[in-house]
Structure formats: structure tokens, C-alpha cells
Amino acid sequence: MKLKIAGKSHIGKKRKINEDNYLIRPDLGLYVIADGMGGHKAGEVASLIVVESMEDYWKRVNINEAPSLPKGMKKDVSDIAKHLINSISFANTIVHEAQKEPQYLRMGSTVSALLIEGDIIWLANVGDSPVYLLDQGRLRLVSEEHSVEAEQKNLGIYDSFSSTNPLMKNMLTRVLGLHEKVDVYIIPMRPEPGDIILMCSDGLTNFMSQQSITKTLSDVSKSLEEKVDLLIDGANDGGGGDNITVILLEVLEEGRWERFKSRFKSSRV
Q1: C-alpha 222, offset from chain centre
Q2: Looking at the predicted structure, is the pLDDT value of residue 262 above 60?
Q3: What is the sign, positive or negative, of the torsion defined by CA atoms of 187, 79, 255, 4?
Q4: SS3 129
Q5: How far apart are CA 112 and CA 130, in angstroms?
Q6: If we measure between CA atoms, which residue out of 125, 121, 96, 90 comes closest to residue 111?
Q7: Distance of alpha carbon 186 from alpha carbon 208, whole angstroms
């Protein structure tokens, strides 16, 4: 799969430190955003642990030294997808163990990750850092939000109090680090040429409307790098109340030879 990628992180207007961390590794086919929490730099530590541990895991995969997969993993996904789940589980374990230090007690992090496997992109996430797909001008959420608000909506018990209470949206039901094990959401994506995938921390979506995000992503006169800057500027113009991290991946048209190589490589995974 041929991709064009751009990404950037910004502290925003209100926060003293940036607790977001992100990873762009085209050579590993890996893209990650982690939004830390915990205060007094603990959130920054948690998110950094997540991206660094996942990067290290996939370096090992790349040289055929991948850790063994635990028994009982999902059977309806490829081995590569299982390793993506496992790399997130490893990150969870490291963050959880780090909490034995008093200054890191109760720290945690969200994670959203994309991994390329041939013509498939595996999306995995824990928490509320969203991933969207722009397909023919339509922007739709493809990640799963793990918050009290989202679960209430799914159960049909969302009420007017929830819509006016920001704590309900910010209260996460899944996060890396707080428990020994974590349930990772994973799904395959098969985007087409021209599609754009948006990965971001909720510092973007909480301060910029979906309509404005869609308009920015759909502007063919702007480069991918310019769109990243415009999204960050838009969130800051909307208040900038949180750290803002954005990664954009645009699917490009491949020639016949490139498609053949991609399919051949996928068949050998």
C-alpha cells in the first residue's frame, strides 16, 4: 500500500506540558498516538512508554525476533494483527509496572495504532483517541471509543445530564496501565486510493467540529502537511484546551507493478 504521511503535535493553549506522544515509522508500517493522563508529568511518561515499547516490539518483529504470542488470542485475525494486540498488551504491562513508583501511581494512557499488512490496515485502540476515515467526502469514526458517555449511548441510556457533563465524556472505561490486562479493540480496514485516515488525540475533536475537520481534509488545494497545520490551528482557535496531536495518512494510487509486489509480500506474511 502506497501512503503519504504527515503528523505533528502541539501543546495547545491551556496545558503546561504535552502529555501526547506519537510515532510515525513507515519502515515498520506502524503509526501510533498515545494520550497520557496522570498529572505532574506522569501522563507524559505513560504515553512515552507506550510509543517506545511498541516501537521496540515492532523492531524485533522486523528482524524475526518477535515475542511468542500467548495462547487464547483472537482466532479471526492474522498473526500480524495478533502481534499488534500483543505489542499493546506489552505496553500496558510496562505502564502498569511503572506505577510501583509513587510519582507514577494511577498514570495511564490511551493508544490508537495503525499497522500496514499488504492492502490491509489494522486499526487497534484502547481509550478515546479517535481514528477517522475520510471516504468520498464522508468522515466516519472507525475506532471504538471507550468512555462512559460512549457506553451509555450504546446502551441507549444517554441523557441530557450526560450531554452537559464533560466528566462523563472524559471518564474512560479502558486505558493502558491501570490494570494488569487490557481489552484491545481491533478491526481491519481496506481504504481506497484518495481516502484519508485521520489519527488524533481528543484535543482535536473536542475543540474543532466534525464539519470543520471534514472541510479541511477535503480541501484538494492543500497539501497533507498544510492540512495537519490547519487542523491544529482550528483546535487552538476553538479554545486549545488540551494537547493536540494529528497524523494523516493518504492512500495513493499504485501502479500495476507496485500492486503486484504488495500482494506478493502480503501472501508471504
Answers
A1: 23
A2: no
A3: positive
A4: coil
A5: 7
A6: 125
A7: 26
Query: 1-37, pLDDT tens digit by residue?
Result: 999 999 999 999 999 999 999 999 999 999 999 999 9
SS3 68: coil
- Please tell me what DSSP assigns to residue 125: E
Mean pLDDT of the chain, nearest integer: 91
pLDDT at 166: 54
Write the single-letter amino acid at 38: G
Q: CB of 241 within 8 A of CB of 169?
A: no
| Strand, helix or coil for residue 124 | strand
CA pair distance 85, 211, nearest whole angstrom: 32
* CA nearest neighbour of 244 among 1, 13, 5: 13
Nearest CA among 73, 16, 25, 26 for reference residue 51:
25
Domains of the chain in sequence order? 3-268 (3.60.40.10)
